[in-house]
Queue: 2 jobs
Job 1
Amino acid sequence: MNRPAPRRAAARGWFAGLVLAGGLAHAGPSASLVFAGDIMLDGALGRLVAAGRDPFAAVAPLLRADIRVGNLECTVATVGNPAADKRYTFRANPRVLPVLRRHFDAVSVANNHSGDFGRDAFLQTLDHLDATGIGRFGGGRSLREAHRPLLIERGGLRIALLGYNEFMPRMFEAEADAPGVAWSEDEQVAEDIADARRVWGADLVIPVMHWGWENELRSGPRQRRLARRMVEAGADAVIGGHPHVVQEVEPYRGVPIVYSVGNFAMELSDNDAQRLGWVLRLELDERGVAALRTDAVRLDRRGLPRPAADRASPCWRRGDAGVSDCSFPGGRRRGSSVPRDF
Ligand SMILES: [Zn+2]
């Protein structure tokens, strides 16, 4: 559940002072978490790995954090057949796993490509991730497992990650005794968030959403409604993806909502906006997100990400009413962060 509002308000003043005085000089429990958007290691990026390259090498410094998370937008398997009714189906060779493990501690499998090659391929994906030591959430061998949070402990914090897909058509959802992804039924999402604390003993809860409309540069009413509901249920941040472009960041009740971080490693992109993504960085403490920054990455034609430090991207600190450009911390504050030069 939400921690009482007065506690947040009382802490805001001194903490903002510390942040401004010299970074996150916080004596209590703390951890950093980075989140990268859609990672698709079939196709060109898979071929780079086969040739001995590391597709994430150029952005490795951006991924350094206590907890490194991404959205795995493909199966990783050698079995299964492509879904006959889908235009794009993604299956990466298991040889990508070591390089994925090098840069990521956990991935969400709650997306519209986990089922591209059927349930056996999805099961193999889960097995491969488990065997490689990559945590996964937002899907599982059963409905119960799909809705169970992934718990990660770092810096004295127990952090629960939950993942949901809601990109229609509603398919490849986990069932009581069948593998699949977690679907974002509002009631269930709110319950899962509460359970993450009550049942699983999490200090912080972060849902990762696969939602919204492709190429929309702003969130839609559905995303905003559910995001608010998640915050009201106790989420400490809401992180989204799937539109393949970045969308705005906004605080709600002192909790940041990042509607879409865009692509991260994705060969298929058909417009310039799809080749810009954000690596999201959250500084966490026992009260939630103390500070948020984004670092822009630009994808080349093969989907290979590189830092794009010239691009404005949103930053936020606890207590701020809106976001500001990371390149002008504390200045140029504005209510939203949609890039203006597409
Ligand atoms: Zn997607």
Note: The chain is about 25% helix and 30% strand.
Job 2
Amino acid sequence: MSEELQNHLNNTVTTEQVTIDEAVNYEKKRFSRRYRMRYLDRLEKAFAKEVFEMVGVGSHIVDIPCGNGRFFGVFSKARKLTMVDYSENMLAAAKEKCGTPENVEFIRSDISSMPLSDSCAELCFCMRLFHHMQNDQVRLQSLKELVRISKKYVALSFYNRNCLRFYLRKILGKKIRGNYVTFAHIIDLAGQARLRVVQRIPKLNLFEQQCFVILEKA
Ligand SMILES: C[S@@+](CC[C@H](N)C(=O)[O-])C[C@H]1O[C@@H](n2cnc3c(N)ncnc32)[C@H](O)[C@@H]1O
């Protein structure tokens, strides 16, 4: 493994390699027990549906990181769906969930360097990875790789620092999980990767940190 790749992984993958049981149960455990997580799951799937409708069923979609296939139900009808994740066990769990339809391929790869050709997909969808990235070098390198692969759109989520939840946890001295950045910071990095903002959801983060953004190649 190259030093650059190892560096990227050290600054991206924050959790230890998940076991196959954890991978299979990721969606059930994380998104079904608490009201808040069920709400976020609904929001994230609604966002995925919106971007899917924007590009249409005739599109090639790259879901990176696909985890255990939480968005398969939304993207499964795409002309082609490429599901990418660094974790072998997450990919195995995704395969178990999705089966092996002809329009779907699974690839084990780091986001910084994917074995996919330039401009091969209409949409790169990246949910719940940016808040694991520990510095701007990693964020920018990842954005550039998403730009390289995408013909047009990149849709991603990040943790927005400008929300009540972040400051409340800070004031109360509670543990802050994940790396938060401002929306202005994401716009700046996106600009450096030659992406412009098409839409931000929500327009203003009040309590929740989860923020979605649709970016287009400039
Ligand atoms: C919080 S999960 C999100 C999965 C999926 N997007 C979802 O929302 O259900 C984060 C995923 O990112 C993967 N991951 C972490 N670092 C990565 C990297 N550098 N390249 C590709 N995948 C990575 C992990 O294996 C894990 O499956």
Note: The beta strands are 60-63, 80-85, 104-108, 121-126, 150-160, 180-181, 195-201, 210-217.
